Fold each of these.
Amino acid sequence: MRRGILLTIGVVSMLTAAVLSTRAEARTREIPYQVKETDHSFEVREYGPRIVAEVEAAGEREKALNDAFSTLAGFLFGKNSPQATAALTKSISDSDGKAKLSMTAPVTTQSIGAGGKIRMRFFMPPEYTMDSLPIPDDKRVKVFELPAQRIAVLRFSGSARKSNFDRHLETLRKILESKGLTPTDDPYEAYYNPPFTPIFLKRNEICVPL
C-alpha cells in the first residue's frame, strides 16, 4: 500500500510539474524565425536581427551557468537604469524607473576555450530597440544587436547535460556534412524550458551558424 501511495504521489507531482511548465512556456515568447529546410528534428532557420544581453562566467560548469543566469535575470527584472532618451513602455512600471522585461526563449550558452568559461545570452523582447532598452547596472552584462543569421539546429528532448549536447552535436555535424553545409562559427546550446519541466518534456537544441 505504501508503495502505491508513493507511486501516486510521484505521478501527481510529475503531472503538476508538466502543467506548470506548460503554463510558464505559454507566457514565454519565442524569438521568431523562418524555417528554410526541415528533416525530422533537423532544421535550417533564418533569424532576423536580434538584441541580446550577454554575460561570461567561469568555473565549474553548473556554478558558471547559475552565476550567468542570475546575473542576466537580475538585469531583466530590475537591476538596470533607463536611458535618458527612452520613454518607459508598458512593461516598465516601477516608480524608481527600474525596468521589468519579459522573459523570452531560448536561453543560449556557449563554451569559450578550454578553461571552463561559458557565455550565456538572453534575447530581448522584440518590441525594444537599442535606444529604448534600459542600461544594465552590472557592467559585466553586455547588450548589443546580433545581425541576421542562418542557423542549423538539431532539436532533442531529455537531459540538458553537456554530454547530451555534445552527443547531438556530433549527429548535427554529420548531417551538415551529408548536406554540404559549412559551419561559419562555433556551436552553442539552446534551452527552452523552466528548470521544473519534466525531463521528457524538455526542449533542447544544439545550434551551428551557417
Amino acid sequence: MTLKNELLRKSIHLLLLVIPLAIRMLSRGEMLTILGTLLFVAAAVELLRRYNARFGRLFLAVTGTMLREHEKEHLTGATYLLLSSFVCVLVFSSWIAQVALLFVVVSDGLSALAGKFWGKHPWIGGKTWEGNAVFILTAVAIVLLHPDCPSAVGLAGGAAAFVCDVFITGIDDNLTIPLCSGVMMQVISVLM
C-alpha cells in the first residue's frame, strides 16, 4: 500500500473518533441503534461484494486502493471496527467503551503512521519500535485525559491493547484491541 493510500486510510480511521464521542453524548440504546444499523449495512455490503460480482467490482473500484490485501477477500477493518464498537457499547461501561475505542482509533492509527513514516527499528510482526512508542504514548495520554477513566484501570487497558496489537495475529486488530482492553478494564474496575 502506498504512503498516500495509507494516509487516506488512517485519516478515515481517525474520523471514527465520532464513535467514542457519540458514546459520551448519547444513551446506550441510541448508540446500539445507530451502531446496529451501521453494522447491518456493513454486513450487507460485505455479503453483496462477496456474492454479487458486479457489486464486488464496483466496491473494489471505489475502495480498492485503501484496502489491505487480505481485506479484498475477507471482512474489511471498517466492518470489524463497527462490530467491536457495537459489542463495546453493549457489554462495557460507557467510559470503558470510549477508552477502548480510542485505543484502536487513535493509538493504533497513529502508531501505524509513525511506523510507516519514521520506523527505522524493526520489531515483532512487522512493527517498529517507533510505532510502538507512539502507541504507548497515545494510550497513556488517552487514559490521563479521559475525565472518567481511573489511571490504574486505564493503563492496564492500554497495556492489554498494546499486547493485542503486537502479539495477536490472524484476527483483525480493530476487533482485538478494543475487546481485549475493554475486558481488562471492566474486570479490573469490578475488582477495585
